[in-house]
Amino acid sequence: MNTTRELTPELHPDFSSPGATATPWADVVDALRRAEIFWISTVRANGSPHVTPLPARWLDGALHFTTGLEEQKGRNLVRNPHCVLTTGNNAYRHGLDLVVEGRAERVTDRARLTRLAEMWAAELDWPYDVDDDGFRHRPDGSAPNVESGSVPVFGVRPSKILAFGRGERFSQTRYRP
């Protein structure tokens, strides 16, 4: 999905309040850009789910995140790149929850990695340097709770996004490329 073109929303009336309208694509992009924490769901080798929170950034129509390949989510993604990232809030009467489905792919383009590292530093106060394998933690210990070393960066270009709006009317909107 490309953020430069607006996608057409498809309201699911069976799961929406009477009179509800579809969530505009611009609202979805805004929420993806503002969100700091997402929950990633991957699948272990035995088929059981693995869910964990992580920071992610929306850039050029994809969600980007880091994980070590020795971490459970990293091992899962190497074996099966299909994943789901979710974000939103835990209020019942207001908010917008988003579900992003897609395939995680390694980001190796230096220009994109540089832009992402700048976003991590500016938006999350988490400084990274760029190297051939992805991001490198700064040796000065300025990154939170990490050891020095390189971590791969993944991007998920959505195959489907669901937006669940809550408020005066509840809505379920789907977007596909």
UniProtKB/TrEMBL annotation:
Residues 28-121 form the Pyridoxamine 5'-phosphate oxidase N-terminal domain. The keyword Thylakoid does not apply. SUPFAM superfamilies: FMN-binding split barrel (SSF50475). Gene3D superfamilies: Electron Transport, Fmn-binding Protein, Chain A. The keyword Oxidoreductase applies. GO terms for molecular function: coenzyme F420 binding; oxidoreductase activity, acting on the CH-CH group of donors. One of its GO terms (cellular component) is cytosol. Keywords: Oxidoreductase. Pfam families: PNPOx_N. InterPro entries: F420H2_bilvrd_red/Heme_oxyg (IPR052019), Pyridox_Oxase_N (IPR011576), Split_barrel_FMN-bd (IPR012349). It comes from the Bacteria. This is Pyridoxamine 5'-phosphate oxidase family protein. It comes from Solicola gregarius.
